[in-house]
C-alpha cells in the first residue's frame, strides 16, 4: 500500500521544489569539484587560444565557389616574376642538346592580342632561364631552357592573358621553336645533317606557371607552382600544342569582430587540364614546334568567409557543453558521495550536541579509504545514508544547525534561561521519522519561558 501511495505521489505535476542551502550555498560544493572546474576552465582557455590561432590563420573558413563566364577585358596581368614560360629540347636518351649560340634551334616567344577582330602581335626574344634569376628547377635545366626576356616584360606593363566566349577580345602567349638557318645576320648554324640528326627523334619539354587555390594559406590564397609537360618531336612534321588555363578569382571576407569588415580580391590562373597535342606538315621545314597558352572563356570564382570571434565563442560554448555533460557522469557520483559524508558528519555533530557529548570523537571516521578497508565502516555508512534519506528535509537536516543557532541566540538574548532547560524542551518532541530530534518548539512552551524578563 505504501508503494502504491509512493507511485501515486510521483504523478503530481504541481509539486513545490525544495531548495536546500548548505553553508549559504544553493549547491553542495567541494574541493574536488573546484579542482575539476579549474581543470575545465584551463582546458577551455587553451582551446580558445587554439581557436583564435585557427581564426587568424584562416583555417576552418567557409568557402563558396561558382563557375561564370569570363567578362570582357578580364584576365591575368603579369610581370617578370608572376608568370614564367620556358622551353627546351632533349634527345631520345633525355640528354640536353648542346645549342651554343642557337646553332641547332632557336626559340622565339610572341604575344598576340585581338581587339575587335584586329590582331597585334609582338615577338619577344628568348634568353637562357639561368640568366633571369628565377629558380623553378635544377641549374642544368635552366641552362638549357629558354625563357621570355624580362626586359621586354618590364618595358611593357600591360601583358594580360585574356579569354573570350566569342573569340573577339582575347590574347595568347606562344613560343616558336625553329631550325637554325644561316642568314646575312647570323651564320653560326651547324650543318643541316647534324641539325636533322639531333632533332630527328627528340623530345620537347616546356614549363609554365599555374596557381593552386588553397583557402587556408596565409595572405594570398593562391600558391604558385610550375607545370612541366613533354611531347615527342618527329622529323618533317611540325608539333602544335595548345594549353588552356582557367582564370580564377577569389574574394576573402575578413571580419573578426563584426565591426571592421574588409574584403580583398585576388586573381590567378589555374590549370584547366586541357592540352591539345597535334602534329601537321605545312611544308615549312623551318618550324619545328609551336606552343600556345590561352585562357578559356569560363572562370572560377571563390568566396572565402573567415571565422569571426563570435564563431570562436560558439565553438568554445559547444565544447564546454560537451565536456560538462561528460564530466557530469564522472564527477556527480563523487560529489554525491562527498555530500553523504558531509550530511553524516553534520548528523553526528548534531547528535553529540544534543546529547552533550561534544568531546567524544569517532575513532574511525567515515572516509573513502575507511569505506574500502573496513567492513564495519561500510555498514555504518549504509545505515547512516538510509537514515539521512528517510529524514532528509529542510527542518530536520539541512536547516537544523542554522535554526538551532538562531533559536539559542534569540532565547539567550531575551531571557536568562539556561541551555539545559532549552534542550529538555526540544527533546520532548522527537522526530516521527527517526531517532534524530527535530527543531520543533511548541508555541505554548515557548510562551512559558521567561522571555519578557529582560524587558523588565
UniProtKB/TrEMBL annotation:
Entry keyword set: Membrane, Transmembrane, Transmembrane helix
Annotated TM spans: 32-52
Annotated segments matching region Disordered: 426-456
Domain of life: Eukaryota
Bias kind Polar residues: ranges: 431-443
GO BP terms: reciprocal meiotic recombination
GO cellular component: nucleus
Protein name: Transmembrane protein
Organism: Paramecium octaurelia
Amino acid at each position: 500500500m505504501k508503494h502504491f501511495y509512493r507511485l501515486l505521489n510521483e504523478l503530481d505535476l504541481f509539486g513545490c521544489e525544495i531548495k536546500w542551502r548548505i553553508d549559504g550555498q544553493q549547491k553542495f560544493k567541494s574541493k574536488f569539484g573546484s579542482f575539476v572546474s579549474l581543470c575545465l576552465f584551463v582546458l577551455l582557455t587553451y582551446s580558445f587560444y587554439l581557436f583564435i590561432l585557427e581564426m587568424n590563420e584562416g583555417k576552418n573558413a567557409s568557402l563558396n565557389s561558382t563557375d561564370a563566364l569570363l567578362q570582357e577585358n578580364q584576365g591575368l596581368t603579369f610581370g617578370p616574376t608572376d608568370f614564367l614560360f620556358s622551353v627546351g629540347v632533349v634527345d631520345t636518351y633525355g640528354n640536353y642538346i648542346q645549342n651554343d649560340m642557337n646553332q641547332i634551334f632557336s626559340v622565339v616567344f610572341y604575344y598576340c592580342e585581338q581587339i575587335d577582330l584586329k590582331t597585334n602581335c609582338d615577338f619577344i626574344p628568348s634568353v637562357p632561364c639561368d640568366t633571369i634569376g628565377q629558380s623553378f628547377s635544377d641549374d642544368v635545366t635552366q641552362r638549357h631552357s629558354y625563357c621570355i626576356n624580362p626586359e621586354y616584360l618590364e618595358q611593357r606593363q600591360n601583358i594580360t592573358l585574356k579569354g573570350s566566349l566569342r573569340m573577339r577580345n582575347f590574347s595568347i602567349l606562344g613560343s616558336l621553336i625553329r631550325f637554325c638557318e644561316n642568314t646575312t645576320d647570323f651564320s653560326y648554324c651547324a650543318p643541316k645533317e647534324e641539325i636533322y640528326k639531333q632533332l630527328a627523334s627528340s623530345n620537347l619539354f616546356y614549363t609554365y606557371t599555374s596557381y593552386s587555390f588553397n583557402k587556408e594559406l596565409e595572405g594570398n590564397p593562391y600558391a604558385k607552382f610550375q607545370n612541366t609537360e613533354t611531347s615527342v618531336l618527329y622529323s618533317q612534321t611540325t608539333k602544335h600544342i595548345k594549353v588552356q588555363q582557367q582564370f580564377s578569382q577569389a574574394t576573402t571576407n575578413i571580419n573578426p569582430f563584426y565591426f571592421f569588415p574588409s574584403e580583398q580580391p585576388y586573381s590567378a590562373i589555374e590549370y584547366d587540364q586541357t592540352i591539345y597535342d597535334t602534329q601537321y606538315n605545312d611544308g615549312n621545314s623551318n618550324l619545328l614546334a609551336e606552343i600556345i597558352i590561352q585562357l578559356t572563356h569560363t572562370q572560377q570564382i571563390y568566396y572565402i568567409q573567415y571565422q569571426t570571434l563570435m564563431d570562436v565563442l560558439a565553438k568554445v560554448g559547444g565544447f564546454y557543453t560537451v565536456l560538462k555533460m561528460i564530466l557530469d557522469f564522472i564527477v556527480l557520483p563523487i560529489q554525491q558521495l562527498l555530500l553523504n559524508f558531509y550530511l553524516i558528519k553534520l548528523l553526528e555533530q548534531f547528535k553529540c550536541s544534543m546529547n552533550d557529548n561534544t568531546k567524544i570523537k569517532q575513532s574511525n571516521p567515515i572516509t573513502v579509504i575507511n569505506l574500502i578497508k573496513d567492513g564495519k565502516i561500510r555498514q555504518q555508512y549504509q545505515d547512516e545514508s538510509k537514515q539521512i534519506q528517510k529524514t532528509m528535509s529542510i527542518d530536520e537536516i539541512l536547516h537544523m544547525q542554522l535554526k538551532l543557532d538562531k533559536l539559542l541566540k534569540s532565547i539567550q538574548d531575551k531571557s536568562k534561561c539556561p541551555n539545559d532547560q532549552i534542550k529538555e524542551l526540544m527533546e520532548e518532541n522527537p522526530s516521527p521519522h527517526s531517532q534524530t530530534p527535530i527543531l520543533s518548539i511548541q508555541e505554548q512552551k515557548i510562551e512559558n519561558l521567561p522571555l519578557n524578563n529582560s524587558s523588565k
